[in-house]
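User: I'm writing a short report section on ligand binding and want a predicted complex to refer to. Could you take this sequence and magnesium ion and write out the structure as tokens? A short remark afterwards would be nice.
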Amino acid sequence: SPTFGKKQFKSAIDSAQKELNKLYDEVKVRLGSNQASIFLVHAEFLNDDELLKETEDLISKKHNPAWAWQQTVQSRIDQLKNLDDPILAGRAVDLSDVCQRVLRHMLGIADVSPAASRTPSVLVADDLTPSDTANLDPDLILGFVTAKGGPTSHTAIIARAMGIPAIVAAGDTVLDIANGTNCILDGFNGKLYLNPQPEDIESAEQLHEEIKRQLSADYAERLLPAKTQDEHVIEIFANVNRVADAVKAVEYGAEGVGLMRTEFLFLESGKTPTEDEQYEVYVEMGKALGGRPLTIRTLDIGGDKQVPHLNLPKEDNSFLGIRGIRLCFARPDLFLPQLRAIYRAAKETNIRIMFPMITTLEDVEQVIEITEKVRAEVGAPKIELGIMVEVPSAAILADQFAKLVDFFSIGTNDLTQYTLAMDRVHPQLAKQADALNPAVLRMVEMTVRAATQEGKWVAVCGGAASDIKGASILVGLGVKELSITVPTIPTIKSHLRKASLKDLQALAQSALNCRTAAEVRAL
Ligand code: PEP
Ligand code: MG
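Assistant: Sure. The structure tokens for the complex follow:
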């Protein structure tokens, strides 16, 4: 009867909600609330009165409750997909995830997880939702391959944080691989080898053992500096979002934080943190670093980092719109409290500030004027001010920018996307959008040359610095500080200790003269 159907539906919604809250708590402990926040978003869908009412109306018309729910959610998903907006399309994936969860409860199969495999396996999927990914058991899921997605998707970020080898955006053909096929997954090179011969398996296993041995050897020496054979020291810093990340960074041998992505304070909590709340986070972060430098990047909202509660207008090209510093100029109500919080913290801890998405000289002049005014009001000391070099104009005019700031930090993720005109979250362009493309490397070279002439220093905080090949070339190009993802710190340090600056410089010169990213990688 409809009454019984509605009860059944209500109870499935309640169970799903409880499950999501539990998941949030578990993942928060394991990976931090940043990674866990997606489950709060999912739980929020289940509070959507419209969805619930539409389903109940269908149930009242004597439809099966599971069917009613599925129909209602599917029509909402179709609406989102029709909007042709990648962010909303992403929300459609989340909504479908929630839909499945409720259905599992209604159909009494709640405990069957898609990856409940008993033998350690490589998972192949069309795409994985963030919640699928966070639920993977690293002891059973040795790695995964998705047909869709992108290297900077939520799924890829969670996989990296969990240390699960993965290949994303592999294309639909991977879906034809039969269940039970033996394979070797090489996440470093994005390669999947099918039906390997016994001797291939043996050599892969040997390599795997070697990698594990190397990782623990590197970890043992993580506190040593990255000093090359010819005595050149590179500073190895960390990219962090939260205080817990900073604690882990120090444990892994970071010499400071080269990029704190402050927008995650806004993305995570579902509300705008107050000046006091931000001040406390920055001070805590400084304490966790024990006097090591903390580079705070001011808000970089926009592009793929949308903050729903700000209700910002939808843009056709969000990566080319009111993003980063442009949004800060438009929203002093967000920017000024942040600057005040940073300067208040700077009275107590070792802080540098850097500004994202700087494009014109006017951007820098304006931001320095605003920043200086806040500093004077707060009565804080002068601290180092730098800009992100992530828009080609900043690299091309680096000689001009270098006169105005203390340092540059190159964001290779965006510099690659804007230099090559390839959306960084586009699955079909994932392979070509390579930071080692010589066009991007020449941008880096120009930036370092211009900075050096003005006696300024250059860091790189984009993903290219976290990769052995990228790090080697960047150091060879004269980059002084690499700011990288925490788990890679011991590896990058150890690699640089084995190299000589002279060789890395030669490598960098060869890279600049290559014609393609593939040629650079082959070096
Ligand atoms: C970058 O663009 O390389 C960068 C470090 O910033 P984000 O990834 O946050 O855009
Ligand atoms: Mg960027």
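A remark for your report: The CA atoms of residues 27 and 434 lie 31 Å apart. Residues 112-116 have pLDDT under 50 and may be disordered.
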